[in-house]
Structure formats: structure tokens, C-alpha cells
């Protein structure tokens, strides 16, 4: 083999080897590429699986967190519910306790009022005891004894006159009694006694002046007037207590500037009732004190102003003129329809009270009357005389020294107390 041919052979052989190597290399590359693709696919699959697992884990974590949050919220809600229920229970318990306490307090107050009413009624019975005992003896003798009575009407007339009914009222009662007895054609003493009681109640029920309206502009002014020693200042203390118990705001005016003890006494009643008292030095014009009191009552929007005045004899013209001045000032600076003039009279004064009522009424127009010291007389007939001869209502009866010893005048009850057992 020539050198040329030898070289050509090795060149061919080398080319073939190189070609095979290239082919092998290419196959290797393809194999490597395929493996790489497979690895990528595997990796992608694994990544997808991992991502799926991650999402699942996240969802689980999220669900766990949500459940945890729900559980925590439920616990909080449960605690809130427990607290609310406990609070509601406490509130219900407090409300129940409050209602129970209010009911107990109301029952106690009702019982106290009932006891007080019974005490006041018993006090009224006791205060009328002297009058009742006096009448009882007379009535038993006239109507319920076996003694012969030739002139029944004359005996009744004597009894009424001696009981301070007065001549005019006694005549009116006897005249009316005779008329009804003859009309009923009866001689039965018990029936005549019943007719007498009815006639006495009719006298007390006579039409009187219209009561002052309470819906007027504040304050309502109650001017207390009367002669010396009838108990005006004490009556003011009792009225203040009574009106305050009814829920009114009260102010007192010390219009008696002549007697230092009257001002001091009114201050004591002011402290007892916890109401303000307007006063000035002794000797001050009472009209000025009452004017100052009226202005103070208006400023404080007081419901009722009760004004005291100095005691004065009804036959002292200059003192009565002073009262007229006080009335003018009140009417000028307050609605005249909101002034109530109250005359206080002493039951022990007998027929003299009729003169007092007549003169005070003619001078300053009295709106109503309070009769005091019923417990100090055996002759309560003056009440019938006042009702018979004047169109002025008797509003209250005073007796005793206690702050609540003042009772509205119940006409029917008054008759019942005086005559309740006389026919037995």
C-alpha cells in the first residue's frame, strides 16, 4: 500500500470516527435534552404538587385561623352574653327590689296616712267631746226619756240657744222643724230627732261663695286675718304642712310686725316645714313685708304664699283700714282672683264670732273661715250660726297643738260625731 493510499485510509478512518463521535455526541445531547425535559416536567409536576399542597395547607391554615377566630369570637360572645345576662339579672333583681321597696314604702305611707287620718278623726272626736256630751244630755232628756214633755219645740229651742246657735238660727231651725213635723203628721220623738239632724245638715250644706280656682297664675296668696288670740300663726303652720304634703311649694310672710313672738313662731314653723319665711324688723309697715314676700314668691315660682297679719279687734276702724291697704297691694301686684282671704275665729268666742265675721267680711270680703279651739268649748253651735247667716264656707276645723291637728270640714261627719250615739 502506497503512502498516499495509506494516508487516504487514515483520513477516511478519522473522518468516520469523527462522524461517529459527532453522532454519538448528538445522540448524547438529545438524550441529555430529553432527560432535561423529563426533569423539567418532573420538577414542574412536583412544583404543581407542592403548590397544590401549599394551597391546601394555606386553606387549612386559613380555615384553622378562621375557626380559631370563630371560636375566640364565640368565647367573647359567650362572655358578653354571660355578662349581659348577669347584668340583666342584676338589673331585674334591682328593679324587683326597687318595686318591692316602693310597694313597701307605699304601704307604709298608706298605713301612716290611714293611722294619721284615724288619729286626726279621733282627735276631732275628742275635740268635740265637750259639745257632744252637752248635747247628748239635753237630747236624751228631750227625745229619748220617759219624761213627759208638754212643749217639745220649746225644749229644743232652749237647747239650741244654750248651745250657741244664736237667736236667728234657732228660730230658723224651729220654724223648719215644725213645718216638716206637721207635714209628716208625726209625734214620734225619734222621727222628730231624725228630722232635726237632717235640718242641721241642710244648714251646713247651704250654698256658699265659689271656691278660689287653683289654676291661676302663681302664686296663690292666702291672707290670714282675725282678732287677737284666735290662733292665726299656729293655723298658718298647720296649713303650710297640709299644703306641702299635697306637693305644693310654700312661702310664709311674717305680716304681724307688731308682735316679736309672732315672727319667731312663724320662723319655727318655717323650719319644721322646711319652707322659706320672709320677715322684717318689728314695727315695719306690714304692707311692705307682704309686698316683698309677693315679689320673692313670684321670683321663686312659689305655688302658695301664706301671709300672717297682726291680730286686731274688728271694731278698731284704723286697724281694719290697714288690712284694706294690704288687700289693695296684693290685688295690684298679683291677680286679684288669686287672693284668698281666710278669717280665723275662735269657737270659744260664741256669738261674738258672728260680729267678727260680719265686720271683716264687710271690710275686706272674706272667702272662707277656719274655726279653731273646738276642743275648748262645750258650745259648738256657732258653726251652724255662721253657715246659716253667711255665704262663707268653713274650710277647716282646728284643734290641738300638733302640726297636723287641722282637718277639712266634713259636714256629714261633723253631724255624725255630734249625734252618733245619742239615740241609743
Automatic annotation (TrEMBL):
<dbReference type="InterPro" id="IPR042101">
    <property type="entry name" value="SRP54_N_sf"/>
</dbReference>
<comment type="function">
    <text>Involved in targeting and insertion of nascent membrane proteins into the cytoplasmic membrane. Acts as a receptor for the complex formed by the signal recognition particle (SRP) and the ribosome-nascent chain (RNC). Interaction with SRP-RNC leads to the transfer of the RNC complex to the Sec translocase for insertion into the membrane, the hydrolysis of GTP by both Ffh and FtsY, and the dissociation of the SRP-FtsY complex into the individual components.</text>
</comment>
<dbReference type="GO" id="GO:0005886">
    <property type="term" value="C:plasma membrane"/>
</dbReference>
<dbReference type="InterPro" id="IPR000897">
    <property type="entry name" value="SRP54_GTPase_dom"/>
</dbReference>
<dbReference type="Pfam" id="PF00448">
    <property type="entry name" value="SRP54"/>
</dbReference>
<dbReference type="InterPro" id="IPR013822">
    <property type="entry name" value="Signal_recog_particl_SRP54_hlx"/>
</dbReference>
<dbReference type="InterPro" id="IPR003593">
    <property type="entry name" value="AAA+_ATPase"/>
</dbReference>
<comment type="subunit">
    <text>Part of the signal recognition particle protein translocation system, which is composed of SRP and FtsY. SRP is a ribonucleoprotein composed of Ffh and a 4.5S RNA molecule.</text>
</comment>
<comment type="similarity">
    <text>Belongs to the GTP-binding SRP family. FtsY subfamily.</text>
</comment>
<dbReference type="InterPro" id="IPR004390">
    <property type="entry name" value="SR_rcpt_FtsY"/>
</dbReference>
<feature type="binding site">
    <location>
        <begin position="226"/>
        <end position="233"/>
    </location>
    <ligand>
        <name>GTP</name>
    </ligand>
</feature>
<keyword id="KW-0963">Cytoplasm</keyword>
<dbReference type="GO" id="GO:0006614">
    <property type="term" value="P:SRP-dependent cotranslational protein targeting to membrane"/>
</dbReference>
<keyword id="KW-0378">Hydrolase</keyword>
<keyword id="KW-0472">Membrane</keyword>
<feature type="binding site">
    <location>
        <begin position="372"/>
        <end position="375"/>
    </location>
    <ligand>
        <name>GTP</name>
    </ligand>
</feature>
<keyword id="KW-1003">Cell membrane</keyword>
<dbReference type="Pfam" id="PF02881">
    <property type="entry name" value="SRP54_N"/>
</dbReference>
<dbReference type="InterPro" id="IPR036225">
    <property type="entry name" value="SRP/SRP_N"/>
</dbReference>
<keyword id="KW-0342">GTP-binding</keyword>
<dbReference type="GO" id="GO:0005047">
    <property type="term" value="F:signal recognition particle binding"/>
</dbReference>
<dbReference type="InterPro" id="IPR027417">
    <property type="entry name" value="P-loop_NTPase"/>
</dbReference>
<protein>
    <recommendedName>
        <fullName>Signal recognition particle receptor FtsY</fullName>
        <ecNumber>3.6.5.4</ecNumber>
    </recommendedName>
</protein>
<keyword id="KW-0547">Nucleotide-binding</keyword>
<dbReference type="GO" id="GO:0005737">
    <property type="term" value="C:cytoplasm"/>
</dbReference>
<dbReference type="GO" id="GO:0005525">
    <property type="term" value="F:GTP binding"/>
</dbReference>
<feature type="domain" description="SRP54-type proteins GTP-binding">
    <location>
        <begin position="393"/>
        <end position="406"/>
    </location>
</feature>
<feature type="binding site">
    <location>
        <begin position="308"/>
        <end position="312"/>
    </location>
    <ligand>
        <name>GTP</name>
    </ligand>
</feature>
<dbReference type="GO" id="GO:0003924">
    <property type="term" value="F:GTPase activity"/>
</dbReference>
<keyword id="KW-0675">Receptor</keyword>
